What we know:
- This protein is of the alpha+beta class.
- It has helices spanning 3-15, 29-39, 45-53, 74-82, 139-145, and strands at residues 95-100, 105-110, 121-125, 133-136.
- Helix content is 33%, strand content 14%.
- Strand 3 and strand 4 form a beta hairpin.
- The mean pLDDT is 86.
Amino acid sequence: MSTLEQLAAWKIRKWMPWGGSYPSKPATQESVARIESALKFKVPVDFVEFSRLVHNYGVWFGSIGEDYASHNHLLVLNEAFHQAEDSAIALPEHWVLINHGHDGDCDCFDITAGKDGEYPIYYVNVESPGAPQLLASTFKEYLVKLG
């Protein structure tokens, strides 16, 4: 069993109680292409595979499947956070939101620092702006650090 598969099995169990509140479909070639075109970055391969392995990954991440109208879809979330009514709290375009809290907390790929389809993930807070904090250098590292 690969490291990603082990992480997936662990996350499925950990996130089970909240799985129904955050709908998410597994990624498809079409959904990934649509996201990549709209957000102008390459979705990490491990994120795509994780979405296929963990049916309830929407508990932590925006959906990258074909459920485009979902309130939890990556495109819907990024549109909301990039075009916030208050421009002081809008995320800059180079941050691709993958996880958000309801108190301004955002975990984002920094797509200006990507290499080989991987991007560092930073914590930023749109309600209390400060220096971004590096959380992980890759998506897989981020999964490990989630605990």
